[in-house]
Amino acid sequence: MIDHLPLPPRCSVLIVGAGIQGLSLAFSLAERGVRDILVLDAGYWQGGASGRNGTLIRGAFSSSEWTHFFAHSNRLWLGLSRRLGENVMYSRRGYSMIGERDSTAELLQRTREVHRECGIDSQLLDPAQLRHVLPALAHERVSAALHLPDSGVAPHHAAMYAFRKACERLGVRIEYRTRVDAVDHSAGRVSGVRVGQQRIQADTVVLAGGADSNALAQMAGVPLEGYPMRLEAMALEPTRPLIGPAVALLDRLCYMHQTARGEVVGGAEVAERPQDSLAADVPVMAATARAYLEMFPQLGQARILRQWAGLVHISPDFGPMLGAHPRVPGLFISAGWCYGHAGAPAAGDLLARAIVEGVVDERMQPFAVDRFERGCPVVEPGIVLSHFE
Ligand SMILES: Cc1cc2nc3c(=O)[nH]c(=O)nc-3n(C[C@H](O)[C@H](O)[C@H](O)COP(=O)(O)OP(=O)(O)OC[C@H]3O[C@@H](n4cnc5c(N)ncnc54)[C@H](O)[C@@H]3O)c2cc1C
After folding, report:
1. Residue extents of the structural domains in the chain
2. For residue 385, what pLDDT band results from cuts at 50, 70 and 90?
3. Is the confidence at residue 238, as pLDDT, over 60?
4. Theoretical Cys-Cys bridge with 251: which of 100, 128, 188, 350, CB 3.0 to 4.6 Å?
5. Residue 255 confidence (pLDDT) above 70
6. Ligand 1 centre and the CA of 48: distance in Å?
C-alpha cells in the first residue's frame, strides 16, 4: 500500500478491481443513487487488461445470447460520452467478420439470421460491396463477409479516464496500490474484506479482479471455473488509411483496426500454455504478422512498432460470469471477461440492477456464475479465441 487517506471501516458496496468492469459497475451503482462505494485495486491505474486491449467494440456475435448482451452494451457505448460527461472517443466505423473457409461462410450466414432475429443491423457483403468496405483486403481468399455498421472502436485510455472521472464526481472512492488480502464472512454471508490487517465491512462485495478472479474467489471460499490467459497485441508503424472498419479474421483467430494515427493495431491468438508473462512472444507476433500480410498484402511495407500483452480471465465457454454468487449472500462476481472492454457498459448496468433491485435481466441471465455446474454453457462460435488443449 502507498500513501493515501486511511481506508474507511465500512462501505455499502466494495468492488475488488478497478479495471473497466469495476469502474463501470461503480458508476452504474452511483448513478442509481448508491452511496459509500469503495473500489480497491492492487495494481496501478490501467495496469490490468483494461489498459492493454485492442479497443474493439463488437456490437454482436454469432449466438443470440452474446448478441443480446453486446448489442445492449454497444447501445450504451453510443451514449456513454454524454452519460459520463467525458469523451470516450467512440468511433462508429463498423466491424467486419471475415470468413475464408466454407464452414465459416455458413456460420456467417447463420449469424446474419441471428442478428435479424435480434433486431441487429448487419449485412452479408457481396464481392463489390466488400471491395468498397475493405479495398485492401485479399478478396480472393474470402468466402463470406458479414458487416455490422454500428460497431466500432473506443480507445481504452479515454474510456478508463471517463469512467474514473465520472465515478469520482459521484463520490465513488477509488484506491489503487491497495490489495485485498481476504474476504470476510459472517452469519453465512459476505461481510467485508481485509487489506493487510485492516477490516472493511461491506453489505455487498463484488469480485471484478480480471485475471486474478480464481484467486479472489478462493479468498471468498467459493470455486470459480476458468483460468488466467495471456492475450497479446501489436501496433504497426503508421500507413496511409487502408482499413476502415474493425476486422475479425475468424479463421485466423485474428482481429485488427487502423487508428486515427494510421497504426494498425490488433493481434492473433496462438494457443499457449496458460502463463503470467507479459514479455514479447515471437511466435504470437509472427502469427499476427503472417495473418496481416496474407490478408492485407500492402501491410508488408509496415514494420512492427510495438508489442504488449495483458492477462484476462477465461471461462470454459469464453463468456462472462456475471451476477450474484448462488450460495453466498452478498457476494457478486464479474469475471470471465475476454471481451470485457466492449461488454463493460452493459455489465455495469445489468449487474448494478441486480445488486440494487435484485432483478436478473434476461440479457445477463445466460451468463450466470453457476451455469457450468448446471451444465448450461453458452455456445458462441464467432469469437477469435481458443482454449489451450
Ligand atoms: C491484448 C488484449 C487485447 C484485447 N482486446 C480486446 C478488444 O478488442 N475488445 C474487448 O472488448 N476486450 C479486449 N480485451 C479484453 C479486455 O481488455 C478485458 O476483458 C477487460 O479489460 C477486463 O476488464 P476487468 O476490469 O475485468 O479486468 P482488469 O482490467 O484486468 O482489472 C482487474 C483489476 O483487478 C485488480 N485486482 C486483482 N486482484 C486484486 C486484489 N486481490 N485486490 C485488489 N485488486 C485486485 C487488478 O490489479 C486489476 O487492475 C483484450 C485484452 C488484451 C490483453
Report:
1. 93-150+228-314
2. low
3. yes
4. 100
5. yes
6. 5
Q: Express each pLDDT in 285-295 by its tens digit.
A: 898 999 999 99
Q: Report whether residue 348 contacts ligand 1, using a CB cutoff of 6 Å.
A: no
What interhelical angle do 20-31 and 156-169 show, nearest 10? 30
List, as one string, the DSSP characters of 200-238: EEEEEEEE--GGGHHHHHHHTT-----EEEEEEEEEEPP
- Distance, CA of 203 to CA of 12 (rounded, Å): 5
55 lines ligand 1 (CB under 6 A): yes
With a cut of 90, say whether residue 2 has pLDDT above it. no
H or E element, residue 349: helix 340-357
**Any ligand 1 atom below 6 A from CB of 210:** yes
State how far Cα 100 lies from the chain centre.
26
Helix, strand, coil shares of the chain, percent, nearest 5, are 35, 25, 40
171 DSSP assignment: T
**Closest C-alpha to 308, from 104, 47, 57:** 47
> pLDDT digit string (tens) for 75-100?
999 999 999 999 999 999 999 999 99
Parallel, antiparallel, or unpaired for β 331-335 and 198-207? parallel
**Domain 93-150+228-314 classification at class level:** alpha beta
| Cell reading at 71 | 448489442
Residue 117 burial (10 A CB sphere; 0-12, 13-18, 19+): exposed
Q: How far apart are CA 220 and CA 202, in angstroms?
A: 14
CA of 130 to the centre of ligand 1 (A): 33
Q: Is 179 in the pocket of ligand 1 (CB under 6 A)?
A: yes
Interval between CA 141 and ligand 1 midpoint (Å): 34
How far away, in angstroms, is 159 Cα from ligand 1 center? 13
Task: Report how far residue 89's alpha carbon sits from residue 77's, in angstroms, rounded to the nearest whole number.
Answer: 10
Residue with cell 503472417: 290
The Cα 61–Cα 366 span in angstroms is: 15
**Residue with the three cell numbers 452511496:** 35
